[in-house]
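Write out structure tokens for Lysine 2,3-aminomutase.
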Amino acid sequence: MQLKVVETPKDEAPRAVKPPVDPSTLSHRHLLEGDFWRRIPAYANVSEAEFLDHKWQMKQTITRVDKLLAALQGLVSPQFIVDAEEGFRHAPMAVRVSPYLLSLVDWTKPYEDPLRRQFIPLSSTRLPDHPQLRFDSLNEQGDAPVQGLTHRYPDKALFLALDTCPVYCRFCTRSYAVGPDTDQAELEKLSLKANAQRWEAIFTYVASRPELEDIVISGGDSYNLRADQIREIGHRLLDIPHVARMRFATKGPAVMPQKILTDDEWFKALVEVVHRGRSMAKDVVLHTHFNHPNEITGITKRAMDRLFGEGVTVRNQSVLQRGVNDQVETMTTLVKRLAHVNVQPYYVYVHDLVKGVEELRTTVDTAEYLEKSVRGTTAGFNTPTFVVDAPGGGGKRVVHSFEHYDRVTGISVYTAPSVKPGQFFLYFDPIHLLPEAGQMRWKDPAEHSKMVQEALDRAQARARR
């Protein structure tokens, strides 16, 4: 039997098997363009050339609360100004906001805006910290053989090269070290300044451990390293025979993409290390940190295109935050927009237990739901893995891999057999999002240890099966 071939006329599209696509589902391709910064009175007369200059961005970056609030005069209500002023008094992180970032906030809705939530604290939204919260909740210092190097995983280490960033995120898990001291007297920050002697001890340790193949250069933020420091760290690590992979970690492209476009020396230094690594069959990449689709603009795409043109791989790590990216539509748009600008979505972290930002945390249950909803909307290699960075040093665990999860008490228990065998690591959902029965138990301090022990007992019973 011969099959009959039906030819489609040249001026007609092939027969559709799916209904026409809703144009709104392609919104991830629509990037903010134009002189959007002129909506801010302070930047109304700033030219495009100035705004795209990384030196101008750095010089105009706001590092004092009074200057930030002065820049917002006329954009927000007096009540908001008072609310933010009081919020900063209790914040563990100092203020540092770039003009680019400030211009992306929708100041007609400052309380709801997802970017404002990440960088400007408000007293009215502040919630008590979870009673199980501890500084350095990930125990990075406990796993540090030398100051500024965390060696937790068998073949990977975290190199904290410096303690400054182009902006300061409220939710930073390293508020124990990053940025200047704040008014919080109880917070004593560890000094991790860029220091040749400290770095030398790190290079010596890495060279002495043949199992170390993968080094993350972070801080602080590698954006704040000078070009000569990028070269020094990159080449010193490439010269160690067993180091095969390297990642420069930075929030910078999300808050100041202008640096990639106009800081030619820094850009050339990064590309030089990437190219030398490739010539040695070693992988050098850039890891960045976008949390919301509104952080990705036409300027971002130009910056990512420049990196892509030089063969620089860029991956993204987001932090799951309530009111920022905890809705399916928002997270899906973020993932697809990242892919649109050639940034590979890599991880979405369940928010760490960080002081002073309890209103930004959400539940493990929310992360599970988001992962199920996002998976299948785009290619698998552009679908992030949702993880809990297990408090106490268990490392990154896939969010649904818990040994036990009680949605009433909000306690989830994880194990890390390849990292710290035999140990159990507990994560705690924010109390205000728990059902009433769970909230009532947390109100009674005598119940705290009981709830923890119940969770451990159930996790241990499962682990024995």
